[in-house]
Amino acid sequence: MARVQLDDVVKRYDDVTAVDNMNLEIRDGEFVVLVGPSGCGKSTTMETVAGLTHPTSGTVNIGDREVTRLPPKDRGISMVFQNIALFPHMDVYDNISFGLRLREYEKAEIDERVERAASVVQMEGMLDRMPDAMSGGQRQRVAIARAIVREPEVFLMDEPLANLDAKLRVTMRTELQRLHKELDTTIIYVTHNQAEAMTMADRIAVLNAGHLQQIDPPLVCYNEPSNLFVAGFIGSPSMNFARGEVTNDGYRSVNGHLGIEFDPMDAGVQPDQSVTLGVRPEDVYPVADAESADEPSDPVAVTSDVLEPMGDEIFVYLLTNPDADVDLEDQNADNQLLMSVSPDSDIEADEEMDVVFDRSKIHLFDGDSGDAIVHGITNLSTGAGSGTAEAEGDD
Ligand code: ADP
Q1: Three-state DSSP class for 163?
Q2: Any idea where the domains of the chain sit in the sequence?
């Protein structure tokens, strides 16, 4: 087990800055997942920890050692990658033990370690199996056992489940969590798969354009995203956003379709300040279900557009002004909202209705920097009663 620390790490390739001033501390025994869109610097960050690439500047520490310029083999790490490269002519035992044999460990020690590693990945009875007689999941487990057998201080895993089919990915997710518990090892894991990040991580590190945006437990990233990028990236489908500005008594969206009443002072904003409102699809309710919201906002008049039944929920696209000639591609305007409702809802397409937001789940972001200002516009000014009691709707 070891702590991993990146201080001011920059990695430049010609004119591309792949990692930009990264400061990241991964605690002893922690499972940290790096997420972000393709090209945001996840793999490069991982490679600087692995020693597969050297940072342009900055330092990398593993445990209490600086390893910035050390080769991978001297860092006490093991890696598992997306492309499982087992030796095809070797059985499971030989594949797992390859590194130990290369380092000329005693046979008894090798046997003991292979057995232990194989049992962790539940491949005990299959040590003489050849790679071509195994499923993708079994091969991946052998690759993990090969990493475990070296008893590293830190595991680095770069999309290790990406090539597996969906069902197997879910099984392997659980196995990796069990493995983490059992080995108590520090794990740094790269994925672009949100479900993997949300379910496995102790903390998620969200990257964008080489910058660390937020590092927090999954639910903190979900409920208290530090900025617009994290708010839009974490959660599927994505959070609804609506640009607007602060008025004397709350928020009004660009085209005036959405309004939320609150005391600007209490929310830490100024009248005329440009802000973006964010609310997740599951925090939007048909007015008939308003009591399901902790604190329903004033109703907003909408018309349902497209419905997407997902089985366990229905996504309802709502238009705030169906007659307007608006650009629905402009996701941050106030023209369209996505609402998630229960599968037994009888909402139909082209239905006029009122919806409310759960005020306790409304986020405000600064219109310029995108930084979060407040999570939850609860009854800021009076601290009593519900949001609906304060003002009769102007819709
Ligand atoms: P991710 O893993 O998040 O998809 P990467 O770390 O692979 O992102 O890449 C980050 C950026 O650095 C990208 O713009 C990528 O094109 C660039 N990059 C990565 N490796 C190299 C390289 N060896 N040479 C030049 N550019 C690179």
Answers
A1: coil
A2: 4-232, 238-392
First to last CA, the chain: 59
Question: Is there an atom of ligand 1 within 6 Å of 34 CB?
Answer: no
What's the CA-to-centroid distance between 191 and ligand 1, angstroms? 14
18 touches ligand 1 (CB under 6 Å):
yes
Identify the CA nearest to 350 among candidates 293, 305, 381: 305
CATH number of the domain located at residue range(s) 4-232 in this protein: 3.40.50.300
pTM: 0.89
Pairing relationship of beta strands 240-247 and 250-253 according to DSSP bridges = antiparallel
Helix axes 136-148, 166-183, angle to 10 degrees: 20
The string of pLDDT tens digits covering residues 60-96 is: 999 999 999 999 989 999 988 877 789 999 999 999 9
What is the length of the chain?
395
What is the torsion angle, in degrees rounded to the nearest 10, for the CA atoms of residue 254, residue 255, residue 256 and residue 258? -70
Instruction: Verify whether ligand 1 is closer than 6 Å to residue 16 (CB atom).
Output: yes
Which of 15, 2, 6, 1 has the alpha carbon at shortest distance from 205? 6
